[in-house]
Structures
1.
Amino acid sequence: MANKQIERCFLCGRVKDEVNQLVKGKFGYVCDECIHEAYEVLNDEEEEHIIHNIQLATPRQIKEHLDQYVIGQDDAKMTLSVAVYNHYKRLRQSKKSDVEIQKSNILMIGSTGSGKTYLAQSLARFLGVPLTIADATTLTQAGYVGEDVENILLRLLENADYDVKRAEQGVIYIDEIDKIAMKGENTSITRDVGGEGVQQALLKIIEGTVSRVPLSGGRKHPQAECVNIDTSNILFICGGAFDGLEKIVYKKSDDKSIGFNADIKSVYDTSTLDLSDVQQHDLVKYGLMPELIGRLPIVTTLQPLAEGNLIRILTEPKNALTKQYKELLAMDGVKLEFEADALKRIAELAIKKKIGARGLRSIIEKAMQNVMYTIPDLSEAKKVVVTSGVIDGTEEAVIYGARNKKIA
């Protein structure tokens, strides 16, 4: 009688009694442990392929790229460059290492139009990773009308062409994070629709969790198909203006003067205070949860843009607004020139209206409306000169024809 063939794994050689399960295949038996190890190897290779497709540059190279698009804010650009470099190095860390590197999530504090959103967009474009921009003011606690926190992950997944692995290496920028601050340090006993509840929901995805994301969007479709997204490797950048934070920072300062010879202006004028030394407890007093602040370990501040920086923004970046309008008129065969006084006036209006770089386009758009309307019908037009009076709306742009002859 022939001996019965012993069932053993053809890869590792272990017999049936030494493993949990043996699976019979084309070439023999394979144990469950070898199958699991093979799956881990394939999964690691897929993740490694995605990570290596990300543009990993040095902090200096990242900052040099940001310099091409964002004027000023050198401290913030340096902080972002180092944080992003360390974050994507963390993704390449060997899984055999015993040292766990935590995420370098970032909190940016800066006034409206100082460049927070643009910095995040420029970073994601350079790295080649999917980016989504969310507004914290639209988020509400579960059960209320508004967007659920999971919708942020859904939009990131959409921007990654529904590739879950790519989405899990992406960047999420949450703007207006200060608008969901609680009003003071003491939590309310009532339902906080847009404050503490939203902070709790954000806390979970920022620190890293496997979130079930309905593809139809939100909990309003409980029967919708869901996909699991691990947020452990998603870089979160939060930004906000934090109006009034300077008063909290000022109160803790020890250099306040009192008495008859005190500088009264410095006591009441907090508009020029520097927020570069803001501490975590200042943000807690402002109304952010300590747990949420702890998940945003890197805090950087953006300074309000001065007139000189706004003029540089108008003229220097690759996609500067003046270059865009010059290109538009060049397509009609017309040369466009902005006088120095006109650029200065645009910057002055932006500062006066407190709209920063974000409002530059609206100022130019209004001033250039008549020019953009008229030029296509003036076949003899060759050059347009924009003066400060055009920006103020008190005079029309000067239009020249052939041989520099003024025609309008």
2.
Amino acid sequence: MSSGLNYAIFAIAVIALAVFYLFFYRDWRRARRLRQPFPASWRALLHQQVPWYRALPPELKQTLEQRVQLFLVEKTFYGCDGFTVDDTVRLTVAGHACLLVLARPYSDYDEVRSILVYPDAYRVQSLESDGLVVSESHEIRAGEASDRGQVVLAWSECELAAQPFCEHNVILHEFAHQLDYLDGASDGAPPLGSAQARQWQHTMAGAYENLRQSLERHQDPWLDPYGATEPAEFFAVLTETFYQQPRHLKDQQPAVYDALREFYRFDPAEYGRMGQADR
């Protein structure tokens, strides 16, 4: 066999391997991972810590388990301030986070790499400048997300999310921000098709203004006032309410509910009061 032919075969093999790695390796690795059984202890923790898991029909429970299985393999958890991350912590975070991609592509979380967990609300120091004077401020946070693939959570707030009728869910909130980052901007408008994006903009802009006006008039708002801070927070708070209080949101803002239902490809109002099933 000539050296030229050997070189050609080698080059083809290298190109084939490169194509496989770039376009197929991740899917192959995930399929291989999902052939492994889902541990019974993990299933028990999902049942205990994720109210929606108890309410889902069997086929969607299995889908959530598969998403969780991939999440726990691919994402790295870090305990902060001496906090110990165990399976309860990991399954609680993964179970709630994966609700958002239960019917969406799991690849929406490809850029999420690490989850930092504090035992309780934590203090963040920041520097602010008006162009002349630099000032230092401190803020207490329950969670945050960054466009660098990092999510930070306070475990005490995550524990509240494990309660069936808790209005707030910091895990859903911060992972909604990660979906918002998918198009490169934290603006309250996740990636959408052109027609859907126009409808989303019309619906959400009107609802956002309605919320702000309700607060200005000192009326009872239909959404947590924190949602009026900025569009990015509006989307994150809406996501919490969509999953935690679906019937309330559907009654108060049916167009907003429909927009979220189309985006998440899931209708939580179909499944009754979460956490009631399987009890």
3.
Amino acid sequence: MIAPPLDGLTVVAFEQAVAAPFATRQLADLGARVIKVERDSGDFARGYDTKVDGLASYFVWLNRSKESVVLNLKDEAGLAAARRLVVGADVVVQNLAPGAMDRLGLGPTQALGLNPSLVYVSISGYGSTGPYSDKKAYDLLVQCEAGLLSITGTPDVPSKVGVSIADIAAGMYAYTGVLSALLQRGRTGAGQVIEVSMLEALAEWMGQPYLYARYGGEAPPRTGAAHATIAPYGPFACADGAIFLAVQNEREWGRFCVEVLRMGEIVDDARFAGNARRVANRAELQAVIEPLFAGITRAEALARLDAAGIANAELRDLHGLAEHPQLEARDRWHDVGSPVGPIRVMVPPVTAPWEYRMAPVPSLGEHTARILAEWQEDPG
């Protein structure tokens, strides 16, 4: 193993909740020193729940390998300490309320005045300009504004995605934006200012349904766990529960009919000739397929699908995820420390020649005294 690629880099995070902490945790995974600035009550994600032996599941997920420093940014001493941190940082990431960092004198222009080589990243709900710039933004609300709920759920009931997908999207773009800006700084030596909004990040992920609706004249319908524009694709009930499958092309369609359904006569049925016709005639297609699966077990269905080379899956709950044989075989779990003892978490999903930093989840203000002792000289 080699040293992680961001070893020696210092990130100062004025962050809370999900989007910014997700970005900075990934920087910490890659070896960056991430100093998390918290108020005396802490990042409010610390209080979302108590499911991890008294700690919040969101906070544990997003904040390993960070150092927590408590600063009162309304106090001159706390603000002076924050300025010192900015001067000593390579990267600043912030997702405080719109305008908060500017009011503190630590907005992007002000921060680069203190540290001209700084990479400065702001994450917000809707961006720093435009009519929504001051509007409060939470994940569900951004899912609504981005049109995601209009295509997710059943025909009768729109549904949100079960994870904080708008926050995650913004955090991913902030993370990749930092890496890109560091490459640019390596060429020019100059600092960089980056802005990521949750709405724009999620709108990018909505690109396919947007194009489908914009140029096709109608939005993809809400189809529950089935695919709105591909068939057959989704859940099918077997004698002892459901399995999921996906047919992607005409070669797979033929094999599915012959080897799985054992109904070779429908390969060339005009109702199902090509994906567009199968989607248009989905009800008739389901009427052909469903009786076959209803008469066999999940094990038999999955065996037939595997033999035919048709993609398939079991519907696992979260306990099933925790015990997934593929993750176990690939050694994808690792214990990290925390104030309540070791916690089992996922290793970052990029398999690489370096060793990831998997350090403890910090208690509130755990590193305040040491960090303030390191940054003693006020930059003015």
